[in-house]
């Protein structure tokens, strides 16, 4: 009997903790249900958690409000865990890539000045997603697609990056001439 009396406070504590956990889970489930109803109705949630911001950004992107969606993806990436951050970066990259392709299809290559910065942002977001999860195949594929549309020339001397002190380049550091230095795969003889 004395042993049971000594365990009584611990059992009461366990009961209180279990009840609190059940109440917290119930409230979370209720909020998720309300949020899902709002999403189905096309309404945004007023919450400011990372997951709510991410879901709002996705909904805005589906509605065509890309700029607002990108802002919310940035906020969600700043507040979220690694999984949410990589998804926010990936979705942002997808939005930039979609915008770039649409501009190129509608206006042609004459609009490359508009597309260049969007492609840079696209590649940056895919790279950030791959820094979080280097094995993510979808992000790798989309980054490769973005690089094919707009190759990055990091480390290549262009007129803007030329430095006269770098004239003495060792044999090992020289870039190859011809096909190996052209990004992409050769398409055959003309």
Automatic annotation (TrEMBL):
It comes from the Bacteria. Residues 156-190 are annotated as: Disordered. This is MxaK, protein involved in Ca2+ insertion into methanol dehydrogenase.
């Amino acid at each position: 009997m004395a042993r049971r009396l000594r365990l009584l406070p611990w059992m009461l504590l366990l009961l209180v903790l279990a009840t609190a956990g059940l109440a917290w889970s119930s409230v979370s489930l209720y909020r998720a249900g309300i949020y899902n109803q709002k999403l189905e109705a096309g309404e945004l949630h007023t919450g400011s958690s990372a997951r709510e911001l991410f879901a709002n950004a996705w909904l805005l992107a589906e509605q065509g409000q890309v700029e607002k969606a990108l802002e919310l993806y940035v906020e969600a990436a700043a507040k979220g865990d690694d999984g949410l951050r990589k998804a926010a970066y990936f979705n942002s990259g997808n939005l930039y890539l979609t915008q770039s392709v649409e501009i190129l299809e509608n206006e042609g290559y004459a609009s490359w000045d508009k597309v260049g910065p969007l492609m840079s942002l696209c590649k940056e977001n895919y790279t950030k997603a791959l820094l979080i999860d280097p094995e993510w195949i979808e992000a790798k594929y989309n980054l490769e697609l973005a690089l094919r549309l707009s190759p990055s020339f990091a480390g290549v001397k262009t007129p803007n990056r030329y430095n006269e002190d770098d004239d003495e380049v060792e044999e090992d550091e020289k870039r190859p001439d011809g096909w190996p230095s052209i990004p992409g795969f050769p398409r055959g003889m003309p």
